[in-house]
Amino acid sequence: MVVSFPEAGTITDRDLTYVVIVAETKGKWIFCKHKDRDTWEIPGGHIESGEKPMEAAARELQEETGAEVFELKRLCAYSVEHEERTSYGLLFHAHVEKLKKMPNSEISEISLDDNLPGKLTYPEIQPDLFHKVKTELAEYRR
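and the corresponding structure tokens:
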């Protein structure tokens, strides 16, 4: 798998299939574990039919982390090439002010960490996305 970050403006919202939200709260990164897997994930998922990427990101963040009060920022598009197929997603950063009890969902637990957990669901994709957000935030905060 090859992850890349296309130049701004080259990918339209119609091209997008996924949203990924690198989220933090109280100085810790938020990761979630799907109830059917024993691995950690960055919150995210599919954009549903008729849904805008920002709406999908907010929905996924709430469903997968219990985020109740948060600020969501659209960062950049990304692509994943796998077996002659390319899919596109949109990368977000979220600053979460308040987490509530997890809704009954596909997520069994969340974790607050200083860095990426060791056992990832998508180890060929998630580190690139996580580091892109950290780089973008470092540049923004200069």
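(Above: one complete record from the training split.) The longest strand covers residues 67-82.
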